[in-house]
Amino acid sequence: MASEPDHNSKQWRATFYTMWFGCFMTGFGFSMTMPFLSLFIGSLGNFNRFELNLYSGIAFAITYLAQAIISPYWGSLADRKGRKLMCLRASGVMTITILLTGLVSNVWLVILLRLVQGLFSGYINNATALMAGETQKSESGVVMTNMMTASVSGSLLGPLFGGVLANYFGYRIPFIVTGVIMGLVFIATWFKADEHFTPIPAKNIKHGADFWHSLGDTKLIWTLLLTTLIVETALMSVGPIISLFVAELMHGHGNISLVSGVVAAMPGFGAILVARKVGHKMDSIGAGKILFGGLILATLFFIPMYFVTNPWMLALWRLLLGMASAAMLPAVQTALTVSVPRDVFGRIFSFNQSAQAIGGVVGPMLGAIISGVFSYQAIFAVTAALLIINLIVLFFSRTHLASLRK
């Protein structure tokens, strides 16, 4: 693999557009079904409030639990076989599992399929790792935020489109359409993505302590991974119950599916508005400062959500939260990109995915338990507290973060 690929070449741009499209469609398909997963589960049986919250939390969390466990293996395989193969694996399996989810009639089959999906998923993460390896480090901030923009753009349109489908055709149709979409992603990746990858022999792959010692500033790496975990926990905590909370705010009347889709889409829309500017700023002043700023703003935006009384107030604060989110996880990915050698990107990004997946487990379960025992609003107070803890951790690593200027 070339040490500093030419990001202006025609070949690089073709790969970038393909990976962008794949991330966009993956985000689109995923978000088209996730806001309505709890409503879909509710249609599969006669559940009380606590059971519905619990089953929704499990269905959300089990995919991320599987990702957390299996990601290091896929990361090691990616460093030996390439990231394109990992993208094909993820999109191919998602095509099958999501299609089947739309056809089952038992909540435990839904949970089983989401477990399988988690064991083989990871398209966006591997596409990001692929582009990190194909991009000059001096441009990594822009590319990382553009890759994030792809998934959040899809996440923006997905709930709106899914809301319309769910409202007029039922909750199963969005899953079937998503399965078809992932099939298109598989085909596009197979034929259009080009990776300049030099396989690393298995005997040359460092493991355990040797691997971590080869990274240099391990304290910074662990701090960034912890940040990913906490941020993802905060962002995902409301995921399983967003449509249920909207239904409560609307007192069970009106077009709940469509309004839930709009509310769910707002963070994606906010991220799109500022992502490009944030990426350029990141390449200019460094990922550390951008990360600090994003966390502070996100904390401030979570607090007013506790007091909302209608879904449109919630949508406004989630829009602002999306703007802040454009400066959090992309900043972590950029920091990792400029901190470690290219030949370990697969494993480093898989560890980051594991941290993100653990957050995806803890967040939904935390949200389900808090909403079941206390209230939906209490979730926002807890997530704000988590981000404050994250800020304290980063404060003690500020000298390490300051060294990330390129």
Question: Could you describe the 3D structure shown?
Answer:
The chain has a single domain, classed as Growth Hormone, Chain: A, CATH 1.20.1250. It starts with 9 loop residues before the first helix and ends with a helix. The longest helix has 33 residues, at 49-81. With 406 residues, it is mainly α. The protein has helices at residues 10-33, 37-42, 49-81, 83-101, 107-120, 123-133, 140-169, 172-192, 208-213, 218-236, 242-249, 256-285, 287-305, 311-325, 329-339, 345-373, 378-395, 398-402.
Please give a handful of descriptors for the protein shown:
78% helix, Growth Hormone, Chain: A, mainly alpha, 406 residues, single chain
Radius of gyration, Cα only, in angstroms? 20 Å
CATH-defined superfamily:
MFS general substrate transporter like domains
- What is the CATH topology? Growth Hormone, Chain: A
* Tally of distinct domains: 1
| Shape category | globular
Number of helices: 18
CATH class reads Mainly Alpha
Give the terminus-to-terminus CA distance. 21 Å
Contiguous uncertain segments of 5+ residues: none
State which percent range the strand residues make up. Answer: under 5%
Major pleated sheet? none
Helix content: over 70%
Instruction: Name the average pLDDT.
Output: 80
SSE topology string = HHHHHHHHHHHHHHHHHH
